[in-house]
UniProtKB/TrEMBL annotation:
It holds the Pfam family N_methyl. The keyword Transmembrane applies. NCBIfam families: IV_pilin_GFxxxE. The chain crosses the membrane at residues 20-41. Keywords: Membrane, Transmembrane, Transmembrane helix. It comes from Billgrantia antri. This is Prepilin-type N-terminal cleavage/methylation domain-containing protein.
């Protein structure tokens, strides 16, 4: 017999989650994790695109500054065919070529061209003065035909075209056209 004051019917209290509650919590957690993963991937892709754009801008800036400076002060400009098309500029050495064989004021021959390698295509520079030559990559990120030979527009004006890779996959290109004026030809 149950003493008075005590309920006759004893209920059992639940000590956990039901299967439905557990499934709902798992679905909500999965949605949150997938959303966070998607945000991470979008941030990573944005970072890579920004990095590509920065590299492209740096390559373009460096290449144009070097070429335009040389075109402006050149005593001679030629498109030559030496193992492929190369743009040749002859400039007086203003101290930018430090070599025991090349004194300040002497003529320096510079050749520019794009060459493909395993990592892509780069703009190359060949420098020659009094029999001593140096060849090195100047800037990366160009397409295989990334530096079509400059064209003489007349009056000392030269058109320089650069084609850089436009995507992370290496497909497509962005074309940039610049004009440089050779001071010696423009004055004459």
């Amino acid at each position: 017999m149950v003493p008075s004051g005590f309920p006759r019917h004893v209920s059992h209290h639940q000590s956990g989650f039901t299967m439905v509650e557990l499934m709902v919590a798992l679905v909500i957690g999965l949605i949150i994790v997938l959303g966070a993963g998607q945000l991470f991937l979008m941030g990573f892709q944005t970072f890579r695109q920004t990095e590509l754009l920065g590299n492209k801008q740096a390559a373009l800036t460096f290449a144009t500054e070097a070429l335009i400076r040389d075109v402006r002060r050149a005593s001679s400009l030629n498109v030559v065919n030496v193992n492929g098309d190369k743009f040749e500029v002859i400039v007086p050495n203003s101290g930018d070529v430090s070599s025991p064989s090349c004194n300040e004021g002497e003529d320096v021959t510079k050749r520019y061209w794009v060459e493909s390698s395993g990592d892509g295509s780069s703009l190359y520079l060949w420098v020659g003065c009094n029999g001593v030559t140096i060849e090195e990559p100047l800037a990366e990120g160009f397409t295989s035909n990334g530096f079509p030979m400059p064209t003489d527009e007349g009056g000392g004006v030269w058109q320089l075209t650069f084609r850089l890779v436009s995507s992370l996959e290496g497909t497509g290109s962005d074309e940039f056209v610049f004009y440089a004026v050779n001071r010696n030809e423009a004055i004459n």
